[in-house]
TrEMBL record:
InterPro entries reported in the protein's UniProt record: AIM24, AIM24_sf, Trp_RNA-bd_attenuator-like_dom
Protein name: AIM24 family protein
Pfam families: AIM24 (PF01987)
Transmembrane segments: none
């Protein structure tokens, strides 16, 4: 019976965070190296790991998470191996290496607790939807795991004058140093975006990347915020 399942066994640990398949995250936990993870994302663990939902560090920042779309987080600590997943979504693992990333909260699975993070308003979009779009900015030396509804693409904006346009419902994350502005389109409303109203796109320019998922989120991100 074990022979057909042998290929699915966990591989030896080689990094703090890594994929086990495309839909699961494996985290090597060590005392003093805590983790923030989406509540309910734990599917298995080995060793001794404790969980604290809505810890003080999260409550303090969550006061700014006024969009109703903020992901509830738990603090994970201890020693062992932790496995996380989000309803079969693809998992993308990123080692920030001192850089920063701006993440849609609904796509945030886990990140090292030592990283700097906070909720911030995306400039340039307020005129399109009340107070605009809010995202979670994470920076520092450490690991971040994102989810994507399907295998994502990573678009390199290249630093040129051309802009990259993205449906906000398909947006996962982007480099926070990119310039962002909104674009409203009536003619494209039946081809781009969801719903029967105006179609919105987000235009990115500068040096950096944009991560896009092939499945649009069920929430209209530019309409519910305010």
């Amino acid at each position: 019976m074990n022979q057909p399942l042998a290929g699915l066994a966990p591989a030896p640990v080689t990094a703090r965070m890594e994929n086990h398949g495309s839909h699961m995250l494996k985290v090597a936990m060590q005392t003093g190296n805590d983790l923030f993870a989406r509540v309910g994302s734990m599917v298995a663990y080995e060793g001794f790991i404790q969980y604290e939902p809505n810890p003080p560090a999260v409550r303090q920042i969550a006061r700014d998470w006024i969009t109703g779309e903020g992901a509830p987080l738990m603090k994970c600590s201890g020693d062992g191996l932790l496995y996380l997943a989000d309803y079969g979504a693809n998992v993308v693992v990123i080692n920030l290496g001192g850089e920063a990333i701006s993440v849609n909260a609904t796509n945030l699975l886990a990140f090292d607790a030592n990283l700097q993070w906070g909720v911030e308003r995306v400039k340039g979009l307020a005129k399109f939807a009340g107070q605009g779009l809010w995202n979670t900015k994470i920076s520092g030396q450490g690991w971040v795991a994102l989810t994507s509804r399907g295998e994502p693409i990573v678009v390199d904006c290249g630093g040129g004058e051309d802009e990259t346009y993205v449906d906000p419902d398909a947006l996962v994350a982007w480099s926070p140093n990119l310039k962002v502005k909104g674009k409203r389109s009536f003619k494209a409303q039946s081809l781009i975006g969801r719903g029967s109203g105006e179609a919105y796109q987000m235009a990115f320019s500068g040096q950096g990347i944009v991560v896009v998922q092939p499945s649009e989120d069920s929430t209209d991100r530019l309409r519910i915020r305010g």
